[in-house]
Amino acid sequence: MENLIDYLNTSDLSFVETAGGFLEMTYAGEHYKRISVYRSFPLSDTDEFICVRDKDNKEIGLIRALSELPADVAALLRKHLDLRYFTPKILTVNQIREQFGFTNWNAETTRGHVEFSVRNEHASFVHLTADRVIVVDTDGNRYEIESLAALPAKELRKAVFL
Amino acid sequence: MFTFNFVPKNIPDTFAAVFSVSPESIQMIAETDRTVDGSFEQVYYALTDNELLLLQGNFHGETGFSGVNRPNSSRLASLLRRFVKKKKPQKDKPFDVAHSERISRAEIEAIEVLDQACNGMVCMRKGETYRVLSCFSMNKTKQIHRFARLSTILLSGKEIRPEDTSDDEYIQTCPKCGRPYPDQEALFCPHCQNRRSLWIRLLKYLRPYKWRYLLVIFLMFVTAGINLLRPYLTGTVFIDDVLTPGGRYYGQVLPLIIIALSLGVANQIVGNVLRGRINARISTEMSNDIRTEIFNALQRLSMTFFGKHHTGSLMTRVNDDAGEIQYFFIDALPFFFIQFLNMLGIAVYLFVTNWKVALAVMIPLPVVLFLVFKFFPKIRRFYDRIWVANSSINSSVSDTINGSRVIRAFSTESGEIERFSRKNENHKSLSLRLKLFQSTFYPLFQLLIGLSLVLIWGFGSVQILDGQLTIGELSTMITYITLVYGPMGQLSEFLFWWSNATNSAQRIFEVLDAVPDIADAPDAVPVEQIDGRISIRSVSFSYLPSKPILTDISVDIEPGQMMGIVGHSGAGKSTLVNLVNRLYDVKLGSISIDGTDIRKMKNEDLKRFIGVVSQETYIFIGTVWENIAFAKPGASKEEIVNAAVSAHAHEFIMKLPDGYDTVIGSGIRELSGGERQRLSIARAILHDPRILILDEATSAVDTETERHIQESLDRLVKDRTTISIAHRISTLRNADFIIVIENGRIVEKGTHDELIRHSDGVYYKLHQLQVQALAIKGV
Among residues 367-426 of chain B, which lie with CB inside 8 Å of chain A? Predict the structure, then answer.
């Protein structure tokens, strides 16, 4: 089948971060201000099919994989992607308490100590694999559990929908 | 000064101290909880007369992110706090400033919010230059959007007018802990809800039955008394006084048997039959009361609430939760009460008769209690998890049955089988673990109870030999012990029932307490008749603060005029008519009919004036004529048939086996899209509204049917103010004028002939596309 995906030619691509914290891109002789980067698969494939959009949120094209870019450019894009899809990874769970159809979590993450409450329902837990789960709290913030097996089973059992 | 929710009281002073400004000069303060690089740290904004001030740091001794109530106290501490009457007002912790910055207002034109996937950013803008100031987590979304909007008004040198803050984005917070409610419609704080107040509220459901319930409690006393008396009669009295030579009633076997028998009969009749019958009445009436109340509350609530809750979970509330509470009051509570009385009576008897044996009996008690409260909850949690695993299996079964056509079409049966077997495996391993646990736990538990019987035999025999105890007394004691230890396991179930009922109560109150956001204003005026002049003034609306759907829409429709709305899907067309119909309330701006703001009209009147024919027509389970008469309860058969004839529905209705009496509805007899649409038009004709909304009324039908429907619609729109959303532009030829909506704004306005002349316009392009599409179809 003919490939209709609008891939950007990574050899003709350069990015720069402004003092204000935004990204600008030069591609095929054209300069784009305040572009934004999106993941096509924010959960299952974080480094591939990166979509670049202009300041009016119109798609300029896709980057097939960050690995096609020089390491420093890839790191810059990854930084902005991580800001957009902010999801601390849960390193350990100190305590889970059940309360009125909610579970209150007290945990340590890659971004520090967090406390949040999660509704007791299926929708609060997105199972990416049997072992990897995204936890969504009552406000819609996300936390990632990379491996359920690595966390204290005694606490996790209290979240029955997990 | 304008502060947003949950800004601690010492923050204005901290600003004053760090920047040496007077707190009075601060116009607005807002809070975000993450820094520019996304780390968890508080960032406060203060807008003064000439600067924007930023403070970044943490409250002393606190780092990280808190989406729950602070401080995180242990269970013990929170228990203790319940006993201490007055909670000390918590002092705001000092704010440790890590970074501060002042930005002149001259450098800022606007504050803007960028919504990211699951968080957001606050930026300042001057011309085309943007700068990120801080990030925030989802909890702050509403406040930050409001801050951005209001501060931009101040930055542009204007004053904040009352209508700028009229939007309902004001965040309701729990009066106790100050945290915003997770669900703004439910006004329920999961952090603070205390069980006691919940139960006091629940008792209200018992109030209508209080005398009968008291009678039940009295009967329980009787039962408990008889329960205690019988072992005494058959043990102590029978063995020591009747069978033992020299006893008080030696040889009087028959009277004793008669007494024991009549006690048994009395117990069954008074205790069980009578109590059971009274209970049966109370329980059915009570759950009926609760169910009715929830159902009524659901009818009162607005669309926003239903958007947020799953149908399944709401149905559970109506059905299961009411039952759960009834079960608790009628079955669990009396059971617990009787057991408690039994234990108390038995303990008294044991200690009075022989305290040494009584003490011996108590030896295994701590271990038993420990097991009961430690392991039974564990078993209960197992059941919970199995229930979850089971429902997951169920949903996958129903998914594959509903999607069977797709599965067969792509022949992915094996994948589905694998998915199912994985869930099944999970269920199996959980069930196995539970069964293994139970197979070990229950026998050991029984063993322990057996042990206490051995203890009583041993100690009892020694006491008998010492002449301290009679054989009859020992026999009574043994029966008593089985009475106490037997239901011990179920006693721990009481905690389970209690927590179940508490959860159910909480879910029920969440519905009952939900505030309908579309409610009649207290000063709502009844309106008898209208001409049908609609004026929409600077209306903006969003379902989520981060995604504006409509921006600054203004348009007037004169009585009897027809306005067409055109635009791409998702442009906001349906939202606009939903606002006119008041399924949702406008956030900013106003919509009025004949000069009266629709929010000041009685909802009932409004719905009487407005009729809707939409792309989705819901058919209730019932006969055809009931479904049409839905629009006008009490309509005569003639009116109904007439409406059906004008809607071109009569023909297909007559082809149904029972004509207008045919029962239709989901799962009984499905109608085709075109048929449903025609029923919906018949409903609207019968309703006879002054204002008619056609929301893609001919979307679900083929061209031939469309022609029929168009005829009936043309008849329907005559002399009515009509708003028509059309996906086929051709249907709007008769419109007095057409508006084109793109990205929530009106981009073009005029008659068909005027709009078609602008060859660079959106309308022209849409029209061309459709003409081409029709041409292709024609080939």
Answer: 381, 384-385, 387-388, 392, 422
